[in-house]
Amino acid sequence: MTRVSTDKPVGSISRHLAGDAPGLLTRLRRDALRALASQPLYRHTLIGRVPGDLRVRIGLRWPGDAKRGAAIAGGEIELGGELIRNPTPRWLPPSAGSEWIAAWHGFGWIADLATTGGPTRDAAGDLVQSWLRENTAWHGIVWRSDVLATRVFAWVAHFDEIVRRDHDHTLRRAMLTSISAQLRHLARTANWEVAGAARLRALKGLIAGRAALGDSATRLAKVLKALEREVQFRSFRMAATCHAIPRCSFRFCRI
Predict the structure, then answer these.
(1) Phi-psi map region of 122: left, alpha, beta (phi>0 left; psi -120 to 50 alpha)
(2) How many domains is the chain built from?
(3) Residue 189 lies in a domain
(4) For 231-253, what is each residue's pLDDT tens digit?
(5) Looking at the whole model, is its pTM more than 0.90?
(6) What single DSSP character describes residue 82?
């Protein structure tokens, strides 16, 4: 495994959109969640009904980068300003920074693999299968609400490419089971665990995942209401703090 820093600076806009420092109550709740979720029995609370397929497909997807997808398939993983070649172990290499781990486990890069054809696209299914097999234990970053929500959204948006349409029934079932469990955890954390833009991602992923699995309109309406309140707050915040409004608006829309 080789780690290379790409030294990409984080600008003031990124700092504004990253979210506020958590308050005392949030820190206490987070500590309590960490203690609870790290116990083996916690996973049993995430077991429940699993649909046979997605009830809704998500059509909104940002275009991927085929060149970047080929690099990822070849083991060149550059995320969060950090390049790691052939990470070992694959999902939690000891030299990786927290931003790299969050981005790697968020699967936002899966669009880059899906953009290409042949073996590179097939790598998407292989990586998801690897994640399901190697990430059975709770991890603070991996299961953080914004990271989890980004992963669920990516899996749902690219579900058919990942499972190779109807060719991999085992992976299809495993993904649906995992998505269902992850959404149960996300429903407990999306509205408080993180702040700012990260909270928007958490709520967006919760809405997309629940809609895709055919959740009730009543439960979806509650999350939509929470998202509406957060969007209004962040819109006012950006207007007050961003000097480059078009750039901020673009980042906001891509959340």
Answers:
(1) alpha
(2) 1
(3) yes
(4) 887 776 655 555 544 444 434 44
(5) no
(6) E
